[in-house]
Structures are given as structure tokens and as C-alpha cells.
Amino acid sequence: MATHFLFDGPDPGAHGITVVLAHGAGAPMDSPFMNIMARGLAAEGLRVARFEFPYMRARREQGRRGAPDREPVLRAAWLAAIADLGGGERLVIGGKSMGGRFASMVADEAGARALVCLGYPFHPPGQPEKLRVAHLEHLQTPALIIQGTRDPFGTREDVAGYTLSPSIKFLWLEDGDHSFKPRASSGKTERGHLEEAVRAVAELARR
Which superfamily does CATH assign the domain made up of 5-206 to? Predict the structure, then answer.
């Protein structure tokens, strides 16, 4: 079955770039976070394609509150989306949390132009020993991970101890949580962090 996409921004034409974003485990492709990112990138002149994994599509269409699909299904959904958009060469792939994690697992195989992870789930909150980084050690695709410094799925201090590919760059958002929201006492704002994230993804896409 063909992937159902939600598009924002101008048609990229035959040689343009499309940013493909998948949602996190608990919220759909049109969550407030995903809307802000997609519309912000569209305002930067980029084409954005969003899609949902099968379990989330079932929630939308049938009202079923099932758990996320297992790894083979999530990987297959990403590869199908990439194929439906014509292959990875002109695609920057990624997404929020789980969506970005599984994009990172297929990026090299799909030949993606680049990878962006918006809050990477390095480990479950409170379980730093359960790492999800083995494949990131040898990643070849140019990658940007945008992470809040107090993200319970992986802080700056956590990440400093990991062995990661040199193809991975980081943008750290001061005092941001897993959705980049800072505390009021930090002097930072959620809007400011989201705008910084949009600019960084747009810059990656244009490189």
C-alpha cells in the first residue's frame, strides 16, 4: 500500500530537496510539534513530507490505541516512504524521537542525502544502561541531532560518553526537554528553540 503523505511547502521539482519527517511514538504527524517544524521548514522554502507508521494510521482511521509497531514494521515503513518519494538521493530524512531513530537505522541503506533527529531517544528515561546507539557508531550519512540539554532520553553529559560516528553533528538547545521546551527560569523560550531547530534543519538540507 502506498504511503499517505502530508505535504507542506513548494514542489521541489526534479532536482529539489524534500525533508521527510516521521512522528514520535505517542503523537501523530500533525501534532503541534510536527506542525511547527514542517510549516517552519516550508516557510524556509523547503518541501516537507510527513507520514505515519501503520499503528498511528490505524489510530487515526479506526480509533485503535495500539502500541507502536515492532522494529521490522517501522523500518519497512520508512523504506517504503523513501521509495514512494523516488529514493534517498534528494531526501533529508528524520523526525521526532522514534521517527528520527528509525530514520537513522535505514539512512545508509536508503542512500539518504542527510539525516535529522529531533530529540533522539538514546535510552529510555531513567534507564541509561539501555542504549540505542550501536548503529550510530558506523553511520555514514551526514546527520544532525538536535537535543535539549536536559532531555531525559539523553543529556549532553550522557552523550559525551558514547562512541558515535564523526558524520553526526549536534545542536544542543539549552535547558530544553525532549520537545525542546525550557524552564521559564532558564531565560530561554520554547518558540526560540523551535525556530533555532528549523533554521538548523534548513541549513542541513541546503548543504
Answer: Alpha/Beta hydrolase fold, catalytic domain (3.40.50.1820)
